[in-house]
Amino acid sequence: MFIRKIFAYIPQLEVCSRILYKDYLRKRDSKIEKKYLKDHVPEQKEVSEFFNKLADKIGELNHCRGEILIVHSSMDALERAGKTADEILDFLTSLTGKDGTLVMPAYPFYMPQEIELKFDEEEEPVKKYNPKITPAWTGGLPNAMCGRPGALRSLFPNNTLVAIGKEAECMMEHNLEADVSHGEHSAWKYCSDRHAKILYLGIEPFHALSLIHIAEDMLDEKWPVKGWYKKQKYVIHYNGQTMEKECRVRKRFWSRYLTEQYCARKLQKAGLLFIGDIQGIPIAFINDCNKVTEFVLDSVKKGDLLFYRIPERYLRQ
User: Fold this and answer.
1) Which of 103, 170, 187, 247 lies in the 20 to 30 Å Cα band around 194?
2) pTM, whole model, 2 decimals?
3) Nearest-CA neighbor of 208 among 149, 298, 141?
4) CA–CA distance, 297 with 308 (Å, rounded to integer)
5) Where are the alpha helices (DSSP H) in 147-286?
6) Cα 305–175–212 angle (5° rounding)?
7) What is the pLDDT of residues 206-250, one digit of tens each?
8) Contact present, 273 and 306 (Cβ < 8 Å)
9) Three-state SS at 139
10) Are strands 274-278 and 281-286 parallel, antiparallel or unpaired?
11) Distance CA 260, CA 265 (A)
């Protein structure tokens, strides 16, 4: 898409479009989109050979057997491949094998709060989380995976991961010692430290570059943007026990300054991100999560936040 290419080279334009959309056009576009979807139901051809070709492509890029594989997915796109969620999960676990670990984002769904997105963002009400029953908003595959025998979902209540395989228990063991989603003791950093691979299925990678936040949380107070976090209280229910947890979460205010297209282009140029498609279904692959984390840290040291274009008034002196 032409506009994406422009954003990839001029990140300031992407920021301007986000601010304009959030402040003025969101409600109008929502009505237009609903009407369009009602009147236009696209025809989609089944692509029965998708997973065979995907296995071949992964073999070309780098095998995943015995590795940690994080999968971001969209079941809406994958329905054309003619497989159920369970069949897709069987396929993915066959890629990692008995010595590997399959991981998916299983971000808890909390009822959205109507708060004004501003720099001095107010604290939201206490959120309740139960890893066994709180649904994930990240799609059909993560929800199906959470219900699988042997699946472990992190007790950390924000940007949660679910895992099956050899590393699952160790990955989740110390998560509650963290107070941020991607920093020390988090499941995300565990994966990065062990050079996890990332596969995007039916989804464009710039919509799901969660691993970028590992560098932010690792830097913590050294992150060059002031007021980055706000405090959020949770009540966690698990195995008949109840615990309270206060976390620091990134303010939603900062989302207006995201430069997703620019970041994806930089990762591609550095040889860290492969983007393609198979029979019209988008796929992408990152061979080493840790190399991306190091790339982001190095970019920040050079003054490029990569995933954001933050106005100077919010930067630390």
Assistant:
1) 247
2) 0.86
3) 141
4) 13
5) 168-172, 187-193, 213-219, 260-269
6) 15
7) 889 999 999 999 999 999 999 999 999 999 999 999 999 999 999
8) no
9) coil
10) antiparallel
11) 9
